[in-house]
Amino acid sequence: MATSAVSKTLQGASGQWKRYLAQLLITVWTHRYLYLMLVLPFIFFIIFRFYPMVGNIIAFKKYQLMHGIWGSPWVGLKHFRSLFDDPAFLRVLRNTLSIAALKLLVTFPAPIVLALFINEIRHMVYKRFVQTIVYVPHFLSWVIYGAILYIMLSPANGLINNVIASLGMEKIAFFQKPILFQPIVIISSLLKETGWAAIIYLATISTIDLTLYEAAIIDGANRWQLMRYVTLPGLAMTIVTLFILQIGFFLNVGFEQIFILQNSMVLTTGDVIETFIYRVGIRQARFDFTTAAGLFNGLVGMVLVLMADRLAKRMDLPGIF
Amino acid sequence: MVAARSFRFRFETFLIYLGLGIFAFVAVTPFLHTIARSFSAEAPILRGEVYIWPVGFSLDAYERLVFGGTFWLAYRNSFIITTSATLVQMLMTILCAYPLSRAYLPGRNFFMTLIVFQMIFPPSLIPFYLTVREVGLIDSWGSLIWPYAINTFNMIVLKSYFQALPKELEESAIIDGANDFRVLLHIMLPLSVPVLLTLTLFYVVANWNLFLPAIFFINDGNKQPLQVILRDMIWSMQLATQTASADDFERLAGMEALKASSVIIAAIPMLIAYPFFQRYFIKGIMLGAIKG
Amino acid sequence: MSEQRTFTRRQALKLMGVGTLGTYLAACASPAAPAATTDGSGDAEMPAGEKKTISISHIGGGSLEASEKSQRMQLLRANFPDIEIENRWVSYGGYLDKIPVQIASGDLADLQFCNAFNDIPLMMENEIIIETGPLLEEYGQNIVAVTPAKAWDSTIYDGKQYAVTHNIYDLNIWCSQYRGDWLDKLGLGVPETIDEYGEVLRAFSNSDPDGNGKKDTWGRLLYNSVRFDDDFFHAFGVAVGHHLNGFWRERDGQLALDWVQPGMKDALAWMSDVWADGGFHPDSISIPLGQKDNAFHASFAGNVYTSWNSIDFAQDKIRTVDPDAVIVAGPAPAGPGGRGYTGEGWPWCFVIPITAQWPEDCVRIIDWFFTPDIAAQIMCEGVLGVTNKGLNENGWCVEYTPEEKAAMGDEWANKQNEVQDISVFWGLWLTIGTLGGVQPFPTFPPDMKKHFEDMLAAKYSENALAAKDLSQEYLLLTEKARPVAAEKEFWPGLQTRFGEFISQAVAGAIDLDQGWSEWLDFFEKNGGPLITEQVNQI
User: Does C406 touch chain B if contact means CB atoms closer than 8 Å?
Assistant: First the structure.
């Protein structure tokens, strides 16, 4: 009795499993073209992302060329310890968090505001003009942009300091004051990148259904109400997507910019994880250590992304998964 | 009442126009300054007399750039790399984004999780380099194209956009007997022109500005893209001020203007391209109108 | 090597073709080891009719130097018909990023150009370069004959030598230079002592030497992080070392780092006094690396510490602003701890990786450049027959004198444009000396030597040649032979901390006493003693 019951259950289960499998095959076959599309991207991700990603295990090894990635000896968490134990690490982490938070609060929303305002311009020529102009500074590399900032802010004869002096105030050595470093970073990235980042929002705005505006206008909506109840909801998906993606790189605050702008006088507020890793890891060819630091950055990013995705879904906005 | 509102509306409009104008001017000043430097003589530049208008007008810097053979070679290389890489990237990005935007596709969540995972934990440099070498791409332009065929960021943006398009369109097409390729090609893509163009622009600019991959993967001097050549020029000149020979110093005359002009010349194709893309953003609005 | 490449490529293609997780995992289980594991055996058999291939890395200076268009390359190829030269070009701007990847992946050129201080320790750790001493003995007689024995110190590990060549580099090309016309106007002489030096800097800043009634002149612009201003420090018996590389001297029979000697604190106190009196340009320390000499060239600063051979060029540049400008070099200022200028040593060299199949030929190729007859053809600046006069009846190249260049006017500019991509900057040609002009070899016959010495003298003004002598006279070199193992882990931290400390101390941003004891404490706890111990073991 007992055995037959068991075999019956087993049969039932395997029958269920078979049905499930058959159903799956049918679904897969129905969507065969969609899977076909994914073949090339899949191959790409396997070869250039997942295969080399396995090599990230050097974060737990002492990488030696002679032994290759696999043969190199294991060292456990040594690289992570030397990252966290470094006397500079706490300061570097603090600065990174502070700049990252400022960037998220200030430079992330800025292009949205810019796009909303550009959208308010009815004069076509002026609209195009502004749109093109704010896009241009993106094409100056940070090396060049940094050099120009030094020239403009120089306490010797910089434009800004000349104005300050002509107002009867004392000139300011902007780049020698630790307290001014983070504001300079934020303001310069605002000026340089806001127009570029606004492009995607402008493109999205251009796809919003015009009848929505017409209907709202008939209902008596004013400019700000249109912005609030038509344009912003139209952008919501893009904003959420970009926000979640952005937060995945929370600790990457922009190596090139910080590296160019920092100097030994402002390290107390200006040294960040990426510049630290560059000095200690990359320049010393310590790629095992660098990889460990990258994993740490990724771990923080992953946690934040998952949290942001949950939050978005709870607010009935589309997540990225 | 109506008049008052209209005054307030106009006043606000004026403020918006003015505010944007000021922001645009401040933002573009460094670029104007760079242009002014590129046409200026060395002494006024060093003395900080050049702001947004050239002082001691001179075309020398451009002349020297344009007569250099390597420069044109690098320009051509960059054009080839940018066009072919962008084509590959757009194709791959669309092929990846569309299926993943279909919520009903079994296995989609698993795949998305993998993709987000690789975005956040990218392969570290050395394993990545070894892989590119194993595939046999070292010292070929393929190394600047295939390993970068999909930018996850762009792919997810496109995927989200596809996801938000009305489902009825797809359903009616399927009922008419169209397969997924046809749905993508004839319904989804035409509806996504502005976003597709934005991503194309992102890819074009990224490919044009590409620098580090070329440093790592390309050994042949004749295959180098523009940015590498330009940076090399500026770097070796800066270095020359402290170590080089007398002969090098002669070439260093006018270095500040040369630096600036190389920036301008490298940016020109991207500046020309932008209004072209912009026109299609506006076309996007009209498409929306027709659809309504 | 090439066979192995094809094999891994085929593997990869297979991987691409199947493209399933299964093969992926299978492939993960047996990934190809880095290519460097193939042992380059020098006595490999040469199939008939095939050429040996040797790759050479060049750094910077335009891509065409390494191509058929370069006369030097043509000459090289013609002399070695059995060797296929494969040129690898590395952008100067990308060198610092590329070389660590090359070392960690084993992808080095057969003749790899590198920095002995930064790169050889990493190469040694990864065991990817071969010993060169015996090869040089057999195939590199010309190289050995012209290279000072001490130059090899930085490439010797456990008594074995690991570099093929060191560039014939001016040991010290740096000296302190002043605006002579400003000194005259202010009634001051070229400073001899550190106190006089301080007075000159203060006067340049505060006594309006250019007489325009504006406060727009300064003594000196300190380079980024004060990392190139050793003329001040040597007066107190210490030095920072260029690039914050450190400076070691023998003290009580032991090598010790200058950074922790009491003289360092005195030097910083002296500098912060000058800073407080406005003797330094306010852009000092924070200025981007590339703009070091700009304030001097723009006639804002009256003093600069830089290479002697830039004097004539700088003077021309300043004269476009101030037609009366005269630059004179001065001796290193004397102070309680002595005087001196820091020399950089011999940092650049060629090494041979274990992947090189023909190490003997690698050495032969470079040695060939060092034979007097060949060197005499290629050591002139510019391109043979275009930006120089070509060869004379003895087969020695001849350069144009500055007067001849000036007389040519536009024609000269056109010639330069024509060959600007083929500029001689760094690369293979550096080995025979381009820094600071042509350096005649000690192995040259007397008449040949005189030819090049005369040519060199004709290129520079008297002031410049006087500066050259001064820079040689006060030369001081660090006594540490080469980097040690502990530096890889600890040096970046020490460098950053020290650079930060001295910058803040000079600018008066911190209390010197407190900063000094904190720095000493940091040095003690972060590898300082270990590095010192290892340095003394070499």
Answer: no
